[in-house]
Amino acid sequence: MKSMYLPLHDGKAPYWLLNRMKKLAKPIVTLIIEEFGEKEFFERISNPIFFQSFSNVLGFDWNSSGSTTVLIGVLKSVLNTEDFEIRVAGGKGANALKTPEEIRTFAKEIDVNAEKLIKASRLTAKIDNSALQDGYDVYHHAIIFSKRYWTVIQQGMNTQLRMARRYHWDVYSSKPEVENPHSGIVAVRRENEVINLTSDRSRDARKVMLDILKDGAFKRDYTKLISIVRFRDGISVPKRIDWKAIEVAYELQPERFEDLLLIKGIGKGTLRALTLIADLIYNTGYDKQDPAKYCFALGGKDGVPFPVNRRVYDEVIEFMRSVIEQSRLGDFEKKKLLLKLFNERAPEPIS
Asked: What is the 8-class DSSP label of residue 161?
C-alpha cells in the first residue's frame, strides 16, 4: 500500500494563489469533460492520486490537509455555475452541516432528486465516521453530483496525532454500497488495528449484528455483559451505549446494515459494542486491517518544492484557455497542443 504524508495544517491559501487556482482549474475541468465525458471527470476526481495531483498542479501544498479543503472550495467556485451541469455541496466544519440545504438548492438547478442525494450524503458520512473506526473523526464532507453520477470526498482528523486522512468514494449512479465503497483512502500511516465494518471480511459480522438487534436478545443479557467484559488484546467494550437507539432499531427491524447506520443514535460506541459482542459471543470475526492506501508543476504556496512563479502561472492559464478555444480542432492538432503543454519546462523559482 502507498501512503501520502497528510498532516493537519493551519492557515489559508493567499488570495493571489486562490484566484489563479480557480482560473486554471476551470479550463482543466472543461477539457476533461469535453474530451472524455462527464463520467471520466467523476472517475478522476474520485481517484486519490489524481485529486492530489490536481491540487499540486494548481499550486497547493503537497503534504497538507488543506489541499482537500482548498481544492473542494475551488471546485465549488468553478462547478457551481451555469457553465457546468455538475454541482458540489458541503465543505469543512459548519459548511459540512449545510450539505443537505445546499444539495436541495443545487439539485433544483440541474433537476435531480435531492432527497436521494441527501440520504447518500448522510450514509457516506456515517460509514466513514462510525462503520470504519480508524481513529479519525470526519470534519470535512463534500458530495459532487450531476444528473447521472455522484461521488463523495471527505476528510477525518486525529487531533492527538495532528494527522488527517482523506476518504474517496467510488462513482455511483444510485445508492451507495456499504461493502468496499472507497476508490481509495489517502493516509499518513496505516493504523495497527481498526474496526472495518465496510470490508467484505466483515460481512458475517454485519449480519450477526443485525440479528442481535432484531431478536431483542440485548434486553436479556448484553447490558450486564457490556458493563463487565474486557475484550481480548485489551480492547474495552464501550460501557456507554445509546439504549434508546437500540430500542428504536429493534422496533424498526432494519433489513440492511445501511438502514441500521441511518438510525439516529447508532454511533461509534454502539457499533463497536455490537461488533465485539458478535466476535466474543458468536465467534464472528471482523476485519481489523486498516483499508488506507497509499507532483508540483507550478510550485507551492509555502515555497515547497519551489515558490510559485506568478508570471509563468498566468501564462499557463492563458495557454489552457487557448486549448479550450481550439478544442474543436482535429485530433492531430489537439495532440500537438497537449504535447506542448506537457513538454513545458518547470518554472524557475523566484529569486
From this structure: T
3-state helix, strand, coil in the chain (%, to 5): 50, 15, 35
pLDDT tops 70 at residue 180: yes
CA dihedral 112, 116, 122, 127 (to 10 degrees): -120
152 backbone dihedrals φ, ψ, rounded to 5°:
-125, 140
- Specify which residues 141 forms β-bridges with: 91, 154
**pLDDT of res. 64:** 56
- Other Cβ atoms less than 10 A from the Cβ of 63: the count is 16
What does the alpha-carbon distance between residue 34 and residue 199 come to, in Å, rounded to a whole number? 36
Q: Cite the DSSP H helix spans in 9-113.
A: 15-36, 38-45, 48-58, 66-79, 94-97, 99-110
Asked whether 117 and 150 are in contact (CB, 8 A), the reply is yes
Structure pTM?
A: 0.78
Most confident of 124-138, 160-174, 241-255, 309-323: 124-138
Sign (positive or negative) of CA dihedral 122, 152, 168, 43? positive
What distance in Å separates the CA atoms of residue 14 and residue 39, rounded to the nearest whole number?
32
